[in-house]
Amino acid sequence: MRDPYLLTHLVSLCAIPLLLVQIMIGLAVGDPVFPPWLELGLLALPPIALGVAVQWQRPLYPFSLWVVSLAPQSLSEEKLRWLTALRQAASGWNVSGWLGVLTGMVLFTVFRQLYWAAPLAADLSPLPGALRLLGVLWAVLCFMALNLVVHMALTAARLQWLSPGASLAPYAADKVAQDFLILGRRSPKLWLPREPEQSDWLDRLLLQWQRWRHPDRLAVAKLEDRPAGAEVPAQPSAESTPEAIPAPALSETPESDGTQSHQSETAATSTIAVTASSETSETAEAEAVEAPAAGDGGDA
Question: Measured between alpha carbons, how far is 161 from 156 in angstroms, rounded to an integer?
Fold first, then answer.
């Protein structure tokens, strides 16, 4: 599953190194006031006990971003099944509670190592030795934040691994606030899936770019997104394609008509010229015949 809330909590594990450094810098301020074993217990046990108690009684609400969370009334049926899986006991064992206990033990070991190695970070501390109390409070706050980050990430990882199916009943939405610890302000519209027609202008621009850049890939993606029972449109075959319309004859085109008219005009002109030449030749012959006859009349 790729739920944005669960992925956010898993990615938040990247903040662990930063929190460890801050804890070490806070513990490096000044010298211990109480014996080391007593100060170690006073600083480490309260945050660990708080995390274990929360996971045992009211597990952390996974659909939260620390300062803002998704309202229980807006949860989908699948998310309510995930909450059922978190609260469900395995063979009578409180899985969330015992997982919190094991996590607390590991975190106590980490804090103890940081406590003994804190003098190495004395040069990095911006506070003077007289402000030991302020440095210790900062270390405790960072250690508490570390507990919350680790517990929430383990909850998200557990949901990723469980993937509860339809066999579990959805958790009652009106009981979510009572059985889970919801951090942050509740919002009814936080990372809800958007409808396709509600996409912004950037999504439409990217879609147009993909259509122009890769038209073949877009066509393949549409075929892959087609429902399982949908029919694929058949490609037109050679038999179903309409017969090609024969091109018009040369004589029927306007250009051919103009050529024929030009040829007919040329033929008519040549006919007139031949007729005129024939008439001229007949007139010359008639004049040649009349000339001897006139000469014979004068002699007589």
Answer: 9
